[in-house]
Amino acid sequence: MLGHGSGGKLSAALMREVFLPAFGNPVLNLLNDQAVVERPPGRLAITTDSFVVKPLFFPGGDIGSLAIHGTVNDLAVGGARPLYISAAFILEEGFEIAALRRIADSMAAAARACGVLIVTGDTKVVDRGKGDGVFINTTGIGAAPEGLELSAGGARPGDKVVLSGYIGDHGIAILSSREGLEFESRVESDSAPLHTLVETMLAATGRIRVMRDPTRGGVSSALNEIAAQSQVGMEIEESAIPVRPAVRGACEMLGLDPLYVANEGKLIAIVAPEDAEKLVAAMRSHPLGQEARIIGTVTSAHPGMVVERTAYGTTRVVDMLAGDQLPRIC
Amino acid sequence: MLGHGSGGKLSAALMREVFLPAFGNPVLNLLNDQAVVERPPGRLAITTDSFVVKPLFFPGGDIGSLAIHGTVNDLAVGGARPLYISAAFILEEGFEIAALRRIADSMAAAARACGVLIVTGDTKVVDRGKGDGVFINTTGIGAAPEGLELSAGGARPGDKVVLSGYIGDHGIAILSSREGLEFESRVESDSAPLHTLVETMLAATGRIRVMRDPTRGGVSSALNEIAAQSQVGMEIEESAIPVRPAVRGACEMLGLDPLYVANEGKLIAIVAPEDAEKLVAAMRSHPLGQEARIIGTVTSAHPGMVVERTAYGTTRVVDMLAGDQLPRIC
Fold it and tell me: End-to-end CA distance of chain B, in Å?
């Protein structure tokens, strides 16, 4: 009901009956307007994301676990250790408490698994027809080591482009579940927290220039952003990019290019060439990096442009996503 | 368009044409998935709020300035110095870029005036009819001094309840603008950043136990929360609580109690009795505390309950807001 967002008795009941049982911890339990925590070592990393994924529950996850993983990953690819998360809910009047509880429980489980604390939150309710069930904002705070510089502007010609695994799983899982499509085999979202994979990677080499998790807009957007920010070109090999047969089949049927499809448990790293093999070997020792491989090279030619060498030996420009191929994917 | 939220070219254009011109600063301009900043001294204060106020523009402010003030105030009432803010937008397909630009400019101006940096952000777009123009989440990070304990559980019998000024302005401004009501004189929202008032207060006395900004649910909810958390009672004097004639008139006409109406530029402080007068004097020296006064006393009687002595000498229980008196007020 609208009253659940009004700051009165119903808001307090929602806190007591749904959020505290799921998220409760010594900081949140104080119920102050702000959480006060010990400051972490190093510099602060801050990231924010709103989640509007549709449907709310999908193969391999739900909006709650996705919100935690997405925020943990945005911190992790900056080299930061995820520590604290805020959780803000915008509910549509009429949304079922049982579904909200299921989502909160999923968020709480994901946060526990990642070792992050949900320290503060907010709930608003909008009238029926002015929202869509639930939207969730998670803002994350992490500890970024002093001296570690990972920035989209850091790629240099000669660097290698490393990808951690199969692409397109999340986007196809959402799309097939949204449209009720059936493929030969069910595709599950790859939604997963990447912070321990990143730890493994940073321990293996000090020569990673940039990391990105290729979510909205897929691998193509992530590479294009890095190419633009670093003023370098990129050449990637189609044959090197792992795509599951079911995802490839779905993409062919739907007219999608897997390079543009969202991922929620993959990362791209740009690394100095001399450490690329070492990095891939380290990644393969981690459950989330078993399919890691070098997919391309940073070039001084065609700055700002990403070019793919196809399986047929031709090349094509991999531009940024122009339109709205897959709305509300996260 | 939906494509503005898809992470591709349109998202980049929105960033380049709307958000960077408004918010641009050396941290945000890096366009990484996370902002990395120097850690502040002391402990970290973290707060989050989503803003779904309707209408988006109202007398005395708009959703953009409100989002900054609300988050600055949630940090300030914890005694923290506001430093960094994240800004996440959920747009409804079809929302006008011109209105978004106006809101972003207003947020940027408010942030500059408060001395806080918008360091990271996010934009999502939902289909027409699944949102309502724009919702904004702001998450704030501040520096909380070591040793300062301001918690809703800190009120003690004998303490005085101090209020910083006129109540009900924000709620009545929103309601009159939403419903197209005309009163004798126009009521403007009191939306304002309270961090410098709080600095003045903390400099005047080390004996403030709790501060709250009485937003949703008004003064009554804030006092009830403190009474419940501290396991104390409260007695407040109706005659001591400042309400503008226009707000009082509007409340009478609409059947509202000003104690339940939202404020966005006021605060309540619970302070040791020996420092109450000194605190009020200090507050009155600040433009946002000119009408500050003692409005009541913390009691050991009736723990968890707030009682008001009316102008007629009778007493009544001031309970928490039960329903949805004023939805979407912030």
Answer: 25
